[in-house]
Amino acid sequence: MKRLLLASVFLAVVITVSIIGLNLLEKTYDEVSEALTQGKDCIAIGDYSTAENYCDKAEKAYVKAEKYLSAFVNHSTLDEIGAELAQVKPFTEEGEEAEFYSHCEATLVSLKHLKNDMVISVKNLF
User: Domains in the chain, start-ordered, CATH in brackets?
Assistant: First the structure.
């Protein structure tokens, strides 16, 4: 009976930690997505300095969450997303809209895939 109780407590802890990680990832995705979307809107009207500020905001949100996400997600995956996000800002400084949009979308797609991979489902369990 003690083993069953201990296993139940351990399962509850694992589920709680997984839910916390998923919520953190969703919050990070929302923050980064919002900042990059606003940056894209600024680029569309030619306001490169404001777009640069939104890129900084997205990068800061990601870096802040990255240290916590590293407990739940493979480090190389986080590094790839971080590297992709870091490439966005220089294109606002250079005014290269196509590259800016491309890297924004690549970052968002990578984050969305990561978010979908973290969702607790039968597919992800097996």
Answer: 23-120 (1.20.120.660)
